[in-house]
Design brief:
The chain has 353 residues and is of the alpha+beta class. It has one domain (2-69, 131-347): Beta-lactamase. 34% of the residues lie in helices and 19% in strands. It contains eleven helices and 13 strands. It has helices spanning 2-17, 25-33, 45-53, 138-149, 184-193, 197-205, 210-225, 246-256, 260-266, 287-291, 332-347, and strands spanning 78-81, 84-87, 111-116, 122-126, 132-133, 156-158, 181-183, 243-244, 270-274, 279-283, 296-304, 308-317, 320-329. The chain has a five-stranded antiparallel beta sheet with strand order 4-3-13-12-11, sandwiched between helices. A hairpin with a 4-residue loop joins strand 9 and strand 10. Helix 4 (138-149) crosses helix 7 (210-225), helix 4 (138-149) packs parallel to helix 8 and helix 5 (184-193) packs across helix 6 (197-205).
């Protein structure tokens, strides 16, 4: 077992330092576990710490050979109205009109954005400046704050009853229990790939200064990034007062794509969490990630009644890195249909501006 973990560490460390391989972390795990007679290998806190320590805020590594995060990303916002394009800018925002693109797909969601992640050009927009509840998409900001803090990923966290309190009596978890213990790396993986609310709540509770300091860090990060319509009140997304516009989430997704740890954790299709006394077989909440038909570099879904079905993704479409944001779809199928239509449409767009 020790030799196997060292081998995996060598693969992970090499992939970080020499640019990520085309295999996702989950694929590395599945490949390692496929050999007969070998014990199961899991993502250890040491692996996560090594990965995080080699992963800067402006990382140059990628989970896809086709995509390398840029040092900076210009965010472009455009809302098209019947009277013509109405634009909104921030000090780091430039406006590019997307009205030249014809035959735009219909979208069920309340708000939608497709953006070229390299140039910042908005390729598709619907209500992009409207602040809406974002549900568990919140956890993407939670992950960015954790990554920025460079905390000890080996530190064990025991879930407490307060982590299950949720907001307004909302159900907080279907699988985790009070007293479950995991390290910080596992809590982050739980929060990103399975969207476990107690894990995200515990990450905030165990942050230096506690939950209040964590929420303050979330809002400070949003302001620093130019997410002017965003407000965060807690780390899970259960509270509908966590709001952001599709434009803001385009900024957040572009930022999150620069963290290798978040790319790996948010796009892990399946994972067996071994808590020592029981194993939780878990699937990514985004079926587009699980099915493997798209090159998705970042993924986060969300749902509460007030927000509807939401998803944000960083994906590579016809060699073009793109951000896709959907907020307020009526159901999961409608959300997935919107995403597929937008990605297929984007794949056929010309590259030249």
């Amino acid at each position: 077992m020790k030799k196997q973990k060292l081998t995996l560490m060598h693969v992970l460390t090499t992939s970080v330092l020499l640019s990520m391989s085309s295999l996702s972390f989950a694929e590395l795990i599945n490949h390692a576990n496929s050999a007969p007679g070998q014990a199961s290998i899991s993502w250890s806190s040491e692996d996560a710490s090594q990965f995080l320590n080699n992963d800067s805020v402006k990382a140059s590594t990628s989970s896809s050979e086709e995509y390398t995060p840029q040092a900076t990303t210009t965010i472009t916002t455009t809302i098209r109205k019947s009277t013509g394009p109405a634009t909104s800018t921030s000090p780091t925002t430039q406006i590019l009109d997307n009205s030249r693109y014809s035959n735009q797909p219909s979208v069920n969601a309340r708000a939608a954005l497709v953006m070229d992640a390299n140039t910042g050009e908005v390729l598709f927009s619907k209500n992009t400046n409207t602040a809406l509840p974002i549900a568990s998409v919140t956890k993407l900001m939670t992950a960015v704050v954790i990554a920025d803090a460079q905390l000890n990923m080996s530190e064990n966290i025991t879930l407490q009853s307060i982590d299950f309190a949720g907001a307004g009596g909302k159900n907080s978890s279907s699988t985790l229990r009070v007293g479950d213990t995991m390290n910080r790396a596992e809590a982050l993986l739980f929060a990103l790939m399975k969207s476990e609310n107690p894990a995200a709540a515990a990450l905030a509770r165990t942050y230096p200064g506690g939950r209040a300091a964590f929420v303050s860090a979330m809002n400070n990060k949003a302001r620093a990034l130019g997410m002017h319509s965003s407000k965060f009140t807690e780390s899970t997304g259960l509270d509908p007062r966590n709001v952001a516009s599709a434009r803001d989430l385009g900024i957040l997704v572009s930022t999150a794509s620069q963290y290798g740890l978040i790319r790996q954790f948010s796009t892990t299709p399946t994972y067996d969490f071994n808590l020592g006394y029981r194993v939780l077989k878990s699937n990514n909440t985004n079926s587009l990630v699980r099915n493997g038909g798209w090159n998705i570099n970042i993924s986060k879904t969300g749902f509460i009644n007030e927000a509807g079905r939401c998803v944000v993704m960083h994906t590579t479409l016809n060699n073009r890195p793109a951000v896709v944001v959907l907020l307020g779809a009526s159901n999961t199928q409608a959300r997935n249909d919107d995403a597929v239509r937008l990605m297929r449409w984007t794949s056929q767009l010309p590259r030249a501006i």
